[in-house]
Amino acid sequence: MKKVLYLIIFFAVNISFAQDYSNLVKTYLQQNRSQYSLQQQDISDISIASQSYSKSLKAYNVYVEQRHQGIKLFNSVSPFTIKDGAVYSAKLSFTENVAAKVNGTSPSISAVNAISKAANWLGLQNPTNLNLIETVSDNSYIFSNGNISQENIPVELVYQKMDETGALKLAWDLSIYLLDSTHYYSVRIDALTGELLATDDWVVSCNFGEGSHSHTNTESILFSEANVNNSSRMLGDGSSYRVFPLPLIGPNDGPDQLVLDPSDPIASPFGWHDNDGVAGPEYTYSRGNNVIAQEDANGNNGVGDRAEGGPTLTFDFPFNLPQAPASFRDGAITNLFYMNNMMHDIMYQYGFDEESGNFQVNNYGNPGNGGDYVFADAQDGSGINNANFGTPPDGGAPRMQMYLWSAPGKVLGTLMNINGGPLAGEYYAIDSNFVGGTPLPTTAITEDLVLVVDDNAGSSTDPNDGCDNILNAAEINGKIAVARLGGCGNTFKIAQIQAAGAIAVIVVNNTPLDPTAMIGGGSSLDIPSIMIYQSDGEAIITALLNGDTVNATLRDDGTGNDPFQRDGDLDNVIIAHEYGHGISNRLTAGPANVGCLQNEEQMGEGWSDYFGMVLTIQSDDTENSPRGTGTYALGEGTAGKGLRNKPYSKDFAINDFTYDDIKSQVAPHGVGSVWATMLWDLTWDLIDEYGFDPDIYNGTGGNNIALQLVMDGLKLQPCNPGFVDGRDAILEADQLTNGGANRCIIWRAFAKRGLGVSALQGSTNSRFDGTEAFDVPVDCELGVSDNGLLENNFVVFPNPSNGELNIKSRYDVGNAKVSIFDMNGRKVFNQEIELHHIANINASSLNPGIYIIQIDGDNRSQTTKLIIN
């Protein structure tokens, strides 16, 4: 019976995929030809490059190419959205009046000669043993690698659009993957003259600094796709992995953990160590259907060491940080294997499946090209301070290269531990760097904490910064003192507190960013001092003001003076970022064409940063908390700005990027960071509306909604998109998926950053000709507040709920009253709460249904619909 069911499903899936929408597309183009200023001959020869069904959109994404006399126009691929048997939308990249713009239809140089020309233009050796392997169609061939490419070289006749004239030049389009993996060139060679017309690079590098490169050829270890039988997946394979599991950013966010069988049964139905579709693993090492992770310390792209889990698939390798990366190589490979598989499984839920071009050897009977799992190289020795991801079209295997990072100049360590109570745990801090001062000792200092109180006699207005005459010296004597950073010199502050008898000082940063090392002359300072995060410090100060006893231990545990290189394989945000390049390149204009994010205003780096951040949100994060990309690799805490010029935050005091800033930011990383800032704002606006759901697979929170909209927007946007294109695609995704329920939330989020209704994009091949605007549609103008928009004072989440509720306030309102009314207006719940930031209430006694919750406090009130399941 299982076999019959499987065959029915397989048949149905493939019938849906085989549905031909060519006539529907042609009819649409014919009816709308004048709207697009197209001639009849411009639409008479089209082809469908790829298509897929989107479950979230409940529509087909069909990607259509324009051709002239059977020769396609390069990057003319245009997304059509087909819903309920009709064209819902189309975003054309077609050229009008093609016949008048082409320079010929017959090449003067051969395909094999074009490869030699390309090698010469790229500074490569002349190809040798270049043999024709396959004739795909008229004017489309596959040649051997010629000893210049890791992969065989496909060559196809196309028309290349020349930006300056609009002319269409006949060209050979071919791709060469360099032997050292640094570049995967997509090249157009003039088919009449042999000149180089255009070069794109499918390898996206996210370097921060330069490193040497030296690679030799690599052998292919991909197997052909196997047939799938009717075996169903067993309940887990018993695999376990010691990793820094999501949502952890990396070692700077929490300790490593041993996780049990984290594979998703929908995305990876036979687990992470299968590729034949039969229950039971084929591999006991770090290899499976979605990725092979291996070390490449010598940088040769060969078959390196893999992490071996043995017959029980137990990948439990200690990290024992800090130490040299070579000492935890198996652990690094395991974390890299885990993160690649997690990216595969999570993004599968949001529409990056086989038919949409995801990365799998075996598609298990689903449409799309297989044979393309990720080659993930750990501790790659060909460079430093870098990471990259090369994405060929669907069916071509991508490669991720993760490098080591220079020993950071500023390293936070776990220098403080609170012993017991609600604040118990390790805390990141940075030691002071006073000239001649006393560093934190390696022997533990354990004592109660005392908050400094001064008389505010000077210019400082904070009684807890130690900048004025200290009033509580008797309490401080023999204790560890706590003081805010304040407005006086650090040397003066510490000397004052030392004179009061403190044995050590904890300084609380006055910004949400990483704490910094206090500097200055310190020859008179005989006690150690450290600085901690603002959020951690304020929690401690609140406890001390409440009269709580807080006991702490300070010591130099070595983590704050880490001389070792950082390993990018442990930075989950960087891994997600690199994998994200594969996602955005395969989803934009379809998986058959990965050259649509090469224009100046493209946002590829932004999507990748966003993926890394949205997957590492934790329940206690806030919208204004700073977040950065690559904080672990750079030796920063989780609030560091990372690799970008500004950390991500909704707070304009931390990140004030608007659309116009792409003119001053370097492309592509700076441009992408502006886009990611907008997506980050949108995500938190949706979290404010729907709450946060830690279930990243099947959750219903604002974070899940945002990620789905971003993924669907990638499918809907045109080739070579700009910011306005990306915004409009997300609005269209919300209309298709949610009936436009979030339309105004989306508009306000983008308008706040200058991408309002009146914003002008200009050419997407330039980042200097756009115009920002901050307006929203009239029906979305709900009022005025400090930032020009009306925002809720309180957020109730999760909603729907089982009755266990969180109430988050934008303001410290103190005493507040929560009332819940049924739909007949009867009060069924009432509770007084203390509402400083987040408070919890238990209304689980209520029957399932729809209610109204009213929150009143500090001259602020709000009424919100509440659903109890």
Automatic annotation (TrEMBL):
<keyword id="KW-0732">Signal</keyword>
<feature type="signal peptide">
    <location>
        <begin position="1"/>
        <end position="18"/>
    </location>
</feature>
<keyword id="KW-0862">Zinc</keyword>
<keyword id="KW-0479">Metal-binding</keyword>
<keyword id="KW-0482">Metalloprotease</keyword>
<feature type="domain" description="Secretion system C-terminal sorting">
    <location>
        <begin position="796"/>
        <end position="868"/>
    </location>
</feature>
<dbReference type="InterPro" id="IPR001842">
    <property type="entry name" value="Peptidase_M36"/>
</dbReference>
<dbReference type="InterPro" id="IPR003137">
    <property type="entry name" value="PA_domain"/>
</dbReference>
<dbReference type="GO" id="GO:0008270">
    <property type="term" value="F:zinc ion binding"/>
</dbReference>
<dbReference type="GO" id="GO:0004222">
    <property type="term" value="F:metalloendopeptidase activity"/>
</dbReference>
<feature type="domain" description="PA">
    <location>
        <begin position="448"/>
        <end position="540"/>
    </location>
</feature>
<dbReference type="GO" id="GO:0005615">
    <property type="term" value="C:extracellular space"/>
</dbReference>
<comment type="similarity">
    <text>Belongs to the peptidase M36 family.</text>
</comment>
<dbReference type="InterPro" id="IPR027268">
    <property type="entry name" value="Peptidase_M4/M1_CTD_sf"/>
</dbReference>
<protein>
    <recommendedName>
        <fullName>Peptidase</fullName>
    </recommendedName>
</protein>
<dbReference type="Pfam" id="PF18962">
    <property type="entry name" value="Por_Secre_tail"/>
</dbReference>
<keyword id="KW-0378">Hydrolase</keyword>
<keyword id="KW-0964">Secreted</keyword>
<dbReference type="InterPro" id="IPR026444">
    <property type="entry name" value="Secre_tail"/>
</dbReference>
<dbReference type="InterPro" id="IPR050371">
    <property type="entry name" value="Fungal_virulence_M36"/>
</dbReference>
<dbReference type="InterPro" id="IPR046450">
    <property type="entry name" value="PA_dom_sf"/>
</dbReference>
<dbReference type="Pfam" id="PF02225">
    <property type="entry name" value="PA"/>
</dbReference>
<keyword id="KW-0645">Protease</keyword>
<keyword id="KW-0865">Zymogen</keyword>
<dbReference type="GO" id="GO:0006508">
    <property type="term" value="P:proteolysis"/>
</dbReference>
<dbReference type="Pfam" id="PF02128">
    <property type="entry name" value="Peptidase_M36"/>
</dbReference>
